[in-house]
Specification:
- The complex is a heterodimer of chains A (185) and B (321).
- Chain A is mostly helical and 185 residues long.
- Chain A is rod-shaped.
- In chain A, 83% of the residues lie in helices and 0% in strands.
- Chain B is built from nine helices and nine strands.
- Chain B has a nine-stranded antiparallel sheet with strand order 1-2-3-4-9-8-5-7-6.
- The two termini of chain B are 22 Å apart.
- In chain B, strand 8 and strand 9 form a beta hairpin.
- Helix content of chain B is 49%, strand content 22%.
- With 321 residues, chain B is an alpha+beta fold.
- Classes of the chains: A mainly alpha (185), B alpha+beta (321).
- The interface between A and B is medium-sized, with 20 and 15 residues.
């Protein structure tokens, strides 16, 4: 009888520890996503400025600029899910990367102080976003591992925790960083 | 910064008169040392024979005499080489640093402040004795930096209550301005636990280190294997440690064989290289004209000052002006 009680006690302590660590991981993901959100918003704030400054020069890229504006409008809508935000962010990043590359063809743009400043700010925010994404991915991986691995998966099942999506690091994004570095030399 | 061959040329051409002069002093010191050494050996042998006859060879007094001789010898050695070391620093190292970059100031007796050493948070221990020398300060490519030899120690008591000095850190310590703004603290230490206990248990041990901030696991497996990272902001830690920065730190670690400690605090990068020895102490028994010896001095300086370029601290890519 006593042994059964001890075993029960130990098991419940383990269950409590697992429960708490899962909650900790879940909150960490939410916490870091808030950080991701902040830097994404910083980028949204810069976009109208960038579009306004470069549109008079970049005649051939009108469609890309329009796409960026539209993506921003979509992402700013209230009540969109985290997954949607993640996918919009990926599209926005690749569109901005395209603009970045296209800017190389316009010497007038490079001479423009205002555009250069925007470019630097965007570069920096891009780096911050990349950092936030990586932090988020790590937190999500920790949570996803806990949800799928034994024995934490049993308790995660009771808590009805769901796997979360990670940010895909696209090939264009890697290029994006390189182009930024070239541009400033 | 000048290339390696330019500096080697400078060393052998411009500094040649000083080197020659110092070389003469060195030869004198060696012959003096030999003379004193020979005399000391004779006196010691005579004393030993006399003591052996009167007290027996393994008498406690015998040990005291032996220790006395060793102490006397080391004091004599110190005394005789002191001037030589000083001349070496003022006639060789000072112009060499000037040749690398004229913006650099050198002071052989000064060191990086204890405040900066403690601010780095690399060594979580009270420092009871703090020493150093060979201080260099200036700016490279617009990046302010300073470095020096540092020897930090703390006190412990053994079971008999005797105080003992333990070395916390001995080697080169460098502080430079970092090219990104940040508010958090990020500390990078050599990875001991994962090396000794494997990824699973080692990783778990690292995560329960209470004296440090949260463990930050990074997405570069090679970097993770070599280092352990603690920090109080997971996003900023990754902002500082971009993929390229991790690669550069890793490459630097491969170049130097000593343990590497790096921390990012207060918008500055702090780097400790645990060489366990002094930087520019001339060895009396090796010639200054010896190529290997010369390369060691030049390379140490180049690696340290070159860190600014190596880690691309001079890249003003960001809005920080």
């Amino acid at each position: 009888m006593q042994i059964a009680l001890i075993i029960l006690g130990v098991l419940s302590i383990i269950a409590i520890l697992i429960y708490n660590s899962l909650i900790g991981k879940k909150n960490q993901v939410e916490n870091i996503f808030a950080g991701v959100d902040t830097v994404l918003k910083k980028r949204f704030d810069l976009i109208p400025n960038l579009v306004a400054s470069v549109s008079q020069y970049m005649e051939h890229e009108k469609s890309t600029l329009e796409k960026v504006t539209e993506l921003r409008a979509q992402a700013m809508k209230p009540g969109i899910s985290d997954e949607q935000k993640i996918s919009l962010d990926a599209q926005l990043t690749s569109a901005l990367g395209a603009i970045n590359i296209a800017m190389e063809a316009y010497p007038d743009l490079k001479a423009n102080e205002n555009v250069m400043h925007l470019q630097r700010s965007l570069n920096e925010i891009e780096e911050q976003i990349s950092a936030a994404r990586r932090a988020y991915n790590q937190a999500v991986t920790d949570l996803n591992n806990a949800i799928e691995m034994f024995p934490t998966n049993i308790i995660a099942g009771w808590m009805n925790l769901q796997r979360k999506a990670v940010f895909e690091i696209t090939v264009s994004e890697r290029q994006n960083v390189d182009v930024g570095a070239l541009f400033n030399k | 910064m000048k290339s390696l061959s330019e500096l080697t040329d400078f060393y052998y051409k411009e500094l040649y008169p000083s080197l020659n002069e110092l070389e003469k002093t060195r030869m004198q010191i060696i012959s003096q040392l030999k003379w004193y050494g020979g005399m000391g050996a004779v006196v010691f042998t005579l004393t030993a024979i006399w003591m052996g006859k009167n007290f027996g060879l393994f008498h406690p007094l015998m040990i005291a005499v032996a220790i006395g001789f060793i102490v006397l010898a080391s004091i004599t050695y110190r005394f005789m080489t002191q001037g030589y070391a000083k001349d070496f620093k003022s006639k060789i190292i000072t112009p060499l640093i000037g040749a690398i970059d004229s913006n650099l100031l050198y002071n052989p007796d000064f060191m990086i402040s204890q405040h900066l050493f403690e601010r780095s948070q690399l060594f979580n221990h009270k420092v009871d004795r703090y020493n150093g020398n060979d201080y260099v300060k200036g700016s490279i490519d617009g990046v302010p930096l300073e470095f020096s030899d540092v020897h930090a120690e703390y006190q412990t008591k053994d079971s008999k209550g005797r105080t003992q000095w333990q070395t916390l850190f001995r080697g080169l310590f460098l502080v430079a301005e970092f090219n990104k703004y940040f508010k958090s603290k990020t500390v990078i230490l050599p990875d001991q636990a994962e090396k000794n206990f494997g990824t699973l248990i080692g990783g778990w041990l690292q995560s329960i280190n209470f004296s440090r901030d949260d463990l930050i696991r990074l997405d570069d497996p090679e970097f993770e294997k070599a280092f352990v990272v603690y920090g109080n902001d997971p996003i900023e830690a990754r902002y500082i440690l971009s993929h390229s920065m991790m690669k550069r730190i890793l490459e630097f670690q491969k170049k130097i064989t000593h343990p590497l400690f790096v921390s990012f605090v207060h918008n500055h990068i702090h780097i400790g290289i645990g060489t366990k020895k002094d930087l520019f102490e001339p060895a009396v028994f090796t010639s200054l004209l010896d190529f290997k010896q010369a390369m060691e001095y030049i390379n140490t300086l180049r690696y340290t000052i070159g860190l600014v370029e190596e880690l691309k601290l001079n890249e003003k890519l960001w809005s920080k002006e």
